[in-house]
Amino acid sequence: MSWDTIWGLQHGGGNGVNNKPNYLSVMNYLFQIKGLRYLEDDGRFDYSRFDLDDLTESNLNESEGLNGPVASIFYGTRWCCIGGGNSVQNFATVSSIDWNCNSSTESPVSVSINCDASLGTLTSFNDWPNLVYDGGIIGDVSVNNISAPAQLDTVEEMTWEIYQSFCHTKPGDWNGDSKVNLSDLINQVNYVFKGGQKPSPFCRGDDNADYKVNLKDIVYKVNHIFKGGPKPIPRGDCCLL
Ligand SMILES: [Ca+2]
Ligand SMILES: [Ca+2]
Ligand SMILES: [Ca+2]
Ligand SMILES: [Ca+2]
């Protein structure tokens, strides 16, 4: 089945607005040539499977990124940076997204992210339930409507290897030794107060999962290590339990 045998979709799914980062479909110019971003790679040619949250360009939350269902967590996205060029974020439904391309995470920000000059509300769209196949009998819903085939490597078929390629780090485990203890706390204090090295991935230092690494995380960790407080919270690729 080629793209042009599909009727009923526009470049924005349900409307004609193009380049929407929350419309993960080959109908979208952002993904038409390179394919969708999935598990840190381009090349997944598929229609959209998710109706994600709207993005209000005048009030974007960079910490939240794209909100999406569990099945969407392996998808990345692209968007247009002000001043030209586009940017990419892996695991975009669970990561923060630097919408205004200034290398810091703030909220709210007001910026056009779909390669036009105006601020608007960008809606998402789930293509599959709305595809109309050219070859059916018009009006015969049972023939015209086709359902989504299984994804090539679906979440249902996810192997431990695939899971680990995404989920490879324990929350709060700064030095990656699979334990959360005093050494991690020392690294954290060094970073927050003495300009020490940034955690990599960043979520390793973000014990309370608020997308910042600061005193609150130190308090959280002290509480966990010395006072039996709750474990650091999984987020992003810091999700090993
Ligand atoms: Ca920013
Ligand atoms: Ca816009
Ligand atoms: Ca550790
Ligand atoms: Ca934090």
Give me some keywords for this one:
Type 1 dockerin domain, elongated, two-stranded antiparallel ribbon, disordered N terminus, alpha+beta, 2 domains, single chain, 241 residues, binds calcium ion
Explain briefly what this protein structure is:
By secondary structure, this protein is α+β, with helices and mostly antiparallel strands. Helices cover 17% and strands 10% of the residues.
Description:
- This protein has helices at residues 29-32, 141-144, 160-166, 182-194, 215-227; strands at residues 6-7, 36-38, 41-44, 55-56, 77-80, 86-89, 121-122, 132-133.
- It has 2 domains: 1-151, no CATH class; 167-227, Orthogonal Bundle (Type 1 dockerin domain), CATH 1.10.1330.
- The strands form 4 sheets. Strands 1-8 form a two-stranded antiparallel sheet. It has a two-stranded antiparallel sheet with strand order 2-3. A two-stranded antiparallel ribbon has the order 4-7.
- Strand 5 and strand 6 (86-89) form a beta hairpin.
- The longest helix is centred in the last third of the chain and has 13 residues, at 182-194.
- The chain is 17% helix and 10% strand.
- With 241 residues, it is of the alpha+beta class.
- Helix 4 (182-194) packs antiparallel against helix 5.
- Residues 1-5, 135-144 and 152-158 have low confidence and may be disordered.
- It starts with 5 loop residues before the first strand and ends in a 14-residue tail after the last helix.
- Bound molecules: calcium ion (4 copies).
- One calcium ion binds next to loops.
